[in-house]
Structure formats: structure tokens, C-alpha cells
Write a structure and sequence with these properties.
472 residues; alpha/beta; Rossmann fold; 6-stranded mixed β-sheet; 4-stranded parallel β-sheet; 12 strands; globular; binds guanosine-5'-diphosphate
């Protein structure tokens, strides 16, 4: 590693400052190394040497414990049998060196899935577990290349609990919060072979005790953790004292957690990458500057609204996101609704005829409705998240995890569109984000972390959702 400081531009290397391990087959995943470099500006943020070495040890652990290994066989041997609960012998003999977190796909969209995977991967790094991802919905391998060398992150389809993990929810008897509620766990309880952790936005106070140090001591002894989540819960991991020491070493700059980990984990498959590059080459590559606009409309019904349109235009004007210089500018619009780019084209063509500038508006898709788990739809969504991350400046919609992933990947501090107030654009229309980190929109504000949340210098309430917290 060279001696440059953290904010100096990195030498533009294909391994992202050591984040990525060399040696993968390049052709099977073109986005991983050189190809991305052709499209992405070098990140000004360098991973710490400690993060790099932690990732290398993680990779070795994953290879040793991953699917198909002796350790994996041993660890899954008695899983799911009736005596899973109370066979002390089993727990003692289960391979102490191999412990697992299983990320289970939920019905939420791609952004929700990606932010929760990053959070869970961070948890795996901190607790020396390996992360396996549920592939039953078949989206993972259509979207992402394998991130870890010489092994797989896909949960095998013959995993002993495969038939039941889909039905795990809050009230399930295997759910940690429910077990606490039923007093099924106390200080003398022998840790079970597996637990379900419910870290979805509707989780209860007892589920949230996952974030308490003392509860982590118990959870640490459970070899298999099955997790459903749609949240970016990394900020609350920072408030667990034993994790904090490690996190400070891993991320001396606290607002780079998501940026580094998404770039480490997610490499679009060649199919998705083809969508990214063809769109980029045809519509964005010739522009001097690219502005990304992500327009997500959460109202019901969703659709095209004049007040949302006015808000977008007023944000770009007020924040001078398209300076009136005679340059070629491209505006990349991502939205389920094609009408936004049609209308923006009208607005900007009126403006450009008087100033001599060229503004081209392009929207890759207008799917109208969310169709999560439709292969092509999800691939388009991922391609658009990537395209947004390649822009120079980015405007995103509030509380959208789709937007969170785009700005985190790109290392961009977006301008966030505020929630419109009863059919009128809010004033001001948007606000500049303080950091490129996603917001933890349902952070546990009560309980063991209540005091620390208020005083932690590295946390702030989110610009787009006040009860939420984010790393800054
Ligand atoms: P969130 O609901 O905004 O937090 O983001 P998610 O990604 O979790 O869920 C929204 C889903 O709707 C996406 O994954 C896509 O399937 C779809 N979607 C929403 N906005 C867009 C968009 O601008 N372009 C495309 N292609 N799909 C979108």
C-alpha cells in the first residue's frame, strides 16, 4: 500500500486499493476488475490496511467453512433435527471454528436486499462467521458474481433448514425475540444450534436486544444464525462496545463502511454489466457531466405528479446542479414512471435553446410497477443502480434504499428530495446529504443503546428521516 492519506485520490488500480483479491477469472465476471475502472472514477477513499487484511482472513475462513467442505458437512449434520435444542454434546462437538450467518431473501426490493446483505456481512466480519445467501428466489446468481475466491456464498439447496427458513418470522418459536418473550432463554440455557434473527422494520423491542452487548455474548455461541432483514443496521453495530474497537480500526473514516463493503461484495454479472455499459456508451459517455435523478414515488397510487416534477426541477435549479455553461450535459433519470424524463426533456429544451448548452435526458426504463423476483426486471433495476452510481452528481428520493445503494457505491453525497407536502413541492425542495452512508431508518432508539445514540460523535439523525441514524 502506498503512503497516501485517506482522502487523497487513490492510484487507479483494479483491485480498489487492495479491497479485491486478484486471481478471479476476469471473463466470467467482467465488472469485477478492469471493466469497472473504465467507467468509474477512482474513489478518493482508500480502505485501511486492517480492513484489507480482515477481508483476506475472511476469504480463507469462507473457503474453509463454505459449502462442500468437511466443516460445512459437520456443521449441518444435526441441524434441524428435533434435538437441535438441547443436545449439549452436539454443541460442544460442533466445529467451533465454523459459525455461519444465513441471509434469507425477503419480498422487499433490491435496494432493501443489498443494504441488509452489506450489514450482515459486516456482522460476519466482526464475529468471525461466514455469510451464506439464500438463492431460492434465484435472483442472486442472475445479478451478482461470486464475491469470495475458490468457494461459494450461495446457501446450498440441500441445506437442512431450507424448507423452513422461508416461513420464519417474528412469531416463530425459533425467533430470538420470541424466545426471549417466552422465557425460553436464560443465563443457563444451552445455546441452540440455530436461531432466527428478525431484523426487519417491524421488529419488536425484544428483537432489538440483538444490538446489546450482553445478548451478543449468548448469540455468539449459536453456530447458525438465520437472518431476515431489510435494514442497513451497521450504525447500531458501532454502538456495541466490543465491536466498536474493531470497527474503528477497520474504518478510520466512519462514513466509508457502506462504500467499501458494497464495492467489495457486489459485482454485477456479465448480463447486467452489459446493460450498464451499453446504456453508458450510447447515452452518457460523450457528456462532459452527468447528473443522475432518481425519482421514487411512494404515494399510493404511485405515478407521475406535477408537484414531484416541479420539485425535481426546482432542486436542480436551486442547487445549481446543471450550471449554465456551454457544455454537454446528460441527465440520467431512474424512475418506474417514464413521464418524468419526457417532461424533463421539455423543461430543459426550453432552457437550452436560449443558452447554447446541450442537455440530453435519458431514462433507461419505465417499468411502472415493482416486479421484484422477475429476473429481467431485477437486472434492469441493478443496472440502473450502477448507472446512477457512475454519475457526477446525484439527486435521490428520500427513504429509498434504491437511491442509498446508488450513492454509496458511487461514493456520492446526494441531494435528497424531501417529502412533498400535500401535493405541493416542499420548500426547500431538497437537501445535501452529510455523508454517503445509507440511513438506518429503524434504529433501536430505546433500550441499551438509547444514551449512546444521543452522544456518539459519529452518528447523526438522517436528513431524510429524522428518527433514523447514519454514520457521518
Ligand atoms: P426502495 O423501495 O426505494 O427502498 O428500493 P428497493 O430497491 O428496495 O425496491 C424498489 C424496487 O422497485 C426496485 O428494486 C425495482 O425493482 C423497482 N424500482 C424502483 N425504482 C426503480 C427505478 O428507478 N428503475 C427500475 N428499473 N426499477 C425501479
Amino acid at each position: 500500500l502506498n503512503g497516501s492519506t485517506e482522502t487523497e485520490p487513490l492510484h487507479h488500480d483494479k483491485l480498489l486499493g487492495g479491497l479485491l483479491k486478484p486471481g478471479f477469472d476476469e471473463a466470467s465476471c467482467e465488472s469485477r476488475y478492469t471493466q469497472s475502472l473504465l467507467y468509474r472514477k477512482p474513489s478518493p477513499h482508500k480502505p485501511s490496511p486492517y480492513l484489507v487484511s480482515k477481508l483476506r482472513s475472511y476469504e480463507l475462513l469462507h473457503k474453509r467453512c463454505g459449502p462442500g467442505t468437511k466443516s460445512y458437512k459437520k456443521a449441518t449434520k444435526n441441524l434441524g433435527h428435533d434435538d437441535d435444542d438441547d443436545d449439549e454434546d452436539q454443541v460442544r462437538t460442533s466445529d467451533k471454528g465454523c459459525r455461519y450467518v444465513v441471509w434469507v431473501a425477503t419480498d422487499y426490493g433490491l435496494g432493501n436486499r443489498m443494504i441488509s446483505m452489506v450489514s450482515l456481512f459486516l456482522y460476519a466480519l466482526l464475529t468471525e462467521r461466514i455469510m451464506l445467501v439464500d438463492q431460492r428466489k434465484d435472483i442472486i446468481s442472475d445479478l451478482f458474481c461470486e464475491p469470495f475466491p475458490d468457494t461459494s456464498w450461495l446457501l446450498p439447496l440441500d441445506f437442512p433448514l431450507i424448507g423452513q427458513i422461508g416461513s420464519y418470522y417474528r412469531e416463530h418459536s425459533r425467533c430470538y425475540g420470541t424466545m426471549l418473550k417466552n422465557h425460553a432463554i436464560n443465563s443457563t440455557t444451552v445455546p441452540p444450534l440455530h436461531l432466527y434473527l428478525h431484523l426487519i422494520h417491524d421488529y419488536r423491542d425484544l428483537d432489538k436486544t440483538f444490538f446489546c452487548e450482553q445478548n451478543q455474548n449468548f448469540i455468539d455461541n449459536v453456530p447458525w444464525l438465520v437472518v431476515k432483514s431489510n435494514l442497513y443496521f451497521a450504525p447500531s453495530l458501532w454502538l456495541i462496545p466490543s465491536f466498536q474497537t474493531e470497527l474503528i480500526k477497520l474504518f478510520p473514516r466512519k462514513d466509508t463502511v457502506f462504500h467499501h463493503l458494497t464495492r467489495y461484495l457486489f459485482h454485477p454479472t456479465n448480463q447486467v454489466w452489459g446493460m450498464v455499459t451499453s446504456t453508458y456508451n450510447a447515452n452518457l459517455s460523450k457528456a462532459d457531466e452527468v447528473l443522475g435523478l432518481q425519482i421514487r414515488v411512494f404515494s399510493t397510487p404511485s405515478g407521475y405528479f406535477q408537484h414531484v416534477m416541479d420539485q425535481v426541477v426546482s432542486c436542480t435549479q436551486r442547487e445549481k446542479l446543471l450550471p449554465k455553461t456551454p457544455k454537454v450535459k446528460a441527465v440520467l433519470v431512474a424512475s418506474l414512471h417514464p413521464e418524468y424524463s419526457d417532461e424533463l426533456r421539455n423543461v430543459f429544451s426550453e432552457r437550452t435553446s436560449s443558452t447554447g448548452e446541450i442537455i440530453e435526458v435519458y431514462q433507461p426504463s419505465g417499468e411502472r410497477v415493482q416486479q421484484t423476483d422477475e429476473k429481467l426486471h431485477d437486472q434492469r433495476a441493478l443496472a440502473e443502480i450502477y448507472l446512477l452510481s457512475l454519475t457526477d452528481k446525484l439527486v435521490t428520493s428520500r427513504r429509498s434504499t434504491f437511491g442509498y445503494v446508488a450513492h454509496g457505491l458511487g461514493g456520492l453525497k446526494p441531494w435528497i428530495l424531501y417529502k412533498p407536502d400535500k401535493n405541493v413541492p416542499p420548500d426547500p425542495p431538497c437537501v445535501r446529504a452529510r455523508s454517503m452512508e445509507p440511513c438506518f431508518i429503524r434504529a433501536p432508539l430505546r433500550g441499551c443503546q438509547a444514551k449512546k445514540i444521543k452522544t456518539a460523535p459519529f452518528l447523526r439523525h438522517c436528513e431524510d428521516w429524522n428518527p433514523g441514524i447514519k454514520l457521518v
